[in-house]
Amino acid sequence: MSGRRHLWPALEWDRALEAVGAADEVCLACHVSPDGDALGSMLALAQALRDLGKRCYASFGQPFAVPASLRFLPGQDLLVEPGRMPAAPTLMITLDAAGADRLGPLADNAARADELIVIDHHESNTGFGGVRLVDPAAAATSVLVDELIRRLGATLTSDIALGLYAGLASDTGSFKYPCTTPEVHELAARLIDAGVRPDAVGRELWDRAPFGYLQVLAGALGRARLERDAAGGLGLVWTTISRADREAQSVPYDQLEGVIDQLRRADEAEVAVVLKETDDGDWYVSTRSKGGVDVGRACVTLGGGGHRLAAAFSTRTDPAVTIDRLRAVLRGPLDDAEISA
DSSP for 117-179? Predict the structure, then answer.
């Protein structure tokens, strides 16, 4: 990639390469309820490490189930249930997790690791880990993983490229978010050249769903509420999806990721929010901004994290109370300095 962000000078590449080079066994973990970037990056790195002769384990916290939209990703033979991960790894690498709490039960394994490498791109990263490959300016964690794989000297196989591309496409919103830079397109071109089929990836990520999902989506859109005066007068649109809504149509929780992309299309609202009830009765609150409101700051205030344009938090509070709290911490329009940051 031309420039390669000046070879990422602020990141601890040498320490990371030394730790990986000295390890015979590497444990990888991404955040709970993994998205395309988290799982795609982890499986890509796991395969690269295996190709370099490392024993490799990859996992994520409960619920330990690969989302339906990501079951096309190669490398899942390297996944193990979190309870089967070494309790005190010699080397552990976390991916796309802004804080140790996002690792669920694997946070304990990370705390006991002799060496912990953190690879992440979230602005809300808490600063955990001994070796940090963290860059909020990176479009996706997969961008950083691609650079690590290159520096390790591993071959970019078609299977590795597929995981990286899934992560890149996911976190750039299919290359339509503001984080889509010329360098992002250059990386995408290199991954396509390695064998990725963008049409196949796009279909798996965004263009297929069981009929029951359409019924759940219809109900969620039917319940949507538009508040034109919220978010500093820029508008808020929000909806809820309860566990009962899903169970009525036999739709698992992991198939709800795309609902917010439909909701955020409303012209009258700068901010879109979907409150989704998990199987355990928690509410996962996904937020999106079109650029004028920093939803990441609001979600951090409420115990979550993410980016300025996409963030989330979890709660056990009733949705009506939760939306009141979120509404109260959503600031109005960003100034020019904040938008350009």
Answer: EEEE--TT----SSEEEE-TTSS-HHHHHHHHHHHHT----HHHHHHHHHHHHHHTTTTTSTT
